[in-house]
Amino acid sequence: MQNIQLKKIFVCEFITGGGLCAAQLPESLAKEGVLIRDALLHDLSQLPYSVSTTADARLNLPEYCAQCVVVQAHDDIWAIWEAQIKLADAVWIIAPETDGVLHYLTQIVTSQGKLVLGCGLASIKITSEKMATCLALEAAGVTTIPTYTFENWPKSHWIWLAKPNDGAGCNDTACFNNADDLEDWIEQHDKQLTHVIQAYQPGEAASISCVIKKGKARLLSCNTQIIEINNHMLSLKGSIVNGMREYWQQFEIVANQIAKAFPDLAGYVGIDVIVDNDEIIVVEINPRLTTSYASLREATGANPAELIINILTQPKYGWPKLQQNEVTLYV
Which pLDDT value is given to residue 2? Predict the structure, then answer.
C-alpha cells in the first residue's frame, strides 16, 4: 500500500463554518467551536498543505487560514460545503452527532471519493446514539453504564441522568436525586422519545484523547473533565489535559478494546469515562475532535494534526514518544 499524497485539505467545522447561518448562534457552542477550529487550523498551517475552511459572517475570521469562504445568513451552506469538498483531496469534519449531522457530512465526502480525516460511517452511526453505543460496548465486554429508554428504566431511589440519545457532550443533560423528579422533568419537557436514562455513576469524570487506525489506538492524553451541575443541568467547563496521566496504561487498554470493537473508528477519537476506585467505566465515544484537542500541542510537545494525518496516510508510520504535560483548558 502506497502512502496517500495530500495537497489540499478542507476543514469543515459545522458550528463556526455556517451550519447555523440561518439560525441563532449559541454563544457557548460558538466559543467551543472557535477554540477547536482555530487550534486545528494553527496546527495545519505548520504543515505543507493548502488549507481552506468556511466561517459564519457573525464570527471573526480564523487567523491561520488564508482560504476562507465567509457564509451569510441567506447562503446555501450545503452547496458551499459540497463545492469546497470537490476542490479538496481530504476533508477534516468537526460536527456534532446530533440529528445525524456528522454522519451526513461524512457521507457527502465519501460519495465524492475524498479522504475523510476521521471516522468511518459505521462507527459514526453507532457512536452517535448512546443506546446503540451502550449495547455495542456491552457486546464487546467493555464496562459501561447501563442505558434505558423512558419506557423501560428501573425506577428506584438512585440518582439519575437523562441525556439526549444523539446529543453531544453535556448538551441538555439533566441530573435528579430521585426517579420521580426525573420523570416529571422528562414529561414536562416532552423528552420521552429523545432522551435515554442512566444511573449516576460515582467517580471522577475523565476523557481519553487518542488516535485510532485499523483497530489500534495510540493515546495523546488522559484528561480530567471539569463538569458543573447548575439547577439540575450539566455543563462542561473545561478539562485538565493529562490531569489523569497516572491512568495512562489503564486508559490505553480501554482505548484499544474500543478500537477493536469499532473497526472503522479512525483519526482522533475522544472517549469519556468515569474512574471509580481504579475501575474504568466508559460513558460515551466521540468520533470527532473534542475540546481537549485545543491543548494537545502544549500537552504532547508535538503537532497533533501532523500525528493524525501521518497515521491515516502512512501505513508504516512510527508513533513518536510524546510528552505528558499537564495543561488546564477552560471553555
Answer: 61
| Cα 286 to Cα 274: distance, rounded to the nearest angstrom | 15
- Contact call for residues 284 and 225 (beta carbons, < 8 A): no
Strand partners, 204: 275
Q: Which three cell numbers stand for residue 167?
A: 446529543
Pick the CATH number of 8-117 from 3.90.79.10, 3.40.50.11770, 1.10.10.1100, 3.40.190.10: 3.40.50.11770
All CATH 3.30.470.20 domain ranges of the chain, comma separated, are 127-141+202-330
- Count CA atoms within 13 Å of residue 100 on its CB side: 6
Low-confidence ranges of the chain (pLDDT < 50): 1
3-state SS class at 29:
helix
Rounded Cα–Cα distance for residues 158 and 197 (Å): 12
Alpha helices (H) along the chain: 27-45, 77-87, 101-111, 121-127, 130-139, 179-188, 248-261, 296-300, 304-313
Cell numbers of 60, please? Answer: 471573526
Which bin fits 35, alpha (ψ -120 to 50), beta or left (φ > 0)?
alpha
**Gyration radius of the chain's alpha carbons:** 19
Q: Tens digits of per-residue pLDDT, 118-157?
A: 999 999 999 999 999 999 999 999 999 999 999 999 998 7
User: How many beta carbons lie within 10 A of that of residue 282, not counting itself?
Assistant: 22
Residue 235 to residue 150: CA distance in whole angstroms: 22
Please give the pLDDT value at position 127. Answer: 98
**Per DSSP, what are the bridge partners of residue 234?**
229
What dotted CATH number matches 127-141+202-330?
3.30.470.20
- Structural contact between residues 286 and 168, judged by C-beta atoms closer than 8 angstroms: yes
Mean of the per-residue pLDDT values of the chain: 96
**C-beta separation of 196 from 131 below 8 A:** yes
The three-point CA angle 161-162-164 to 5° equals 140
pLDDT tens, 29-66?
A: 999 999 999 999 999 999 999 999 999 999 999 999 98
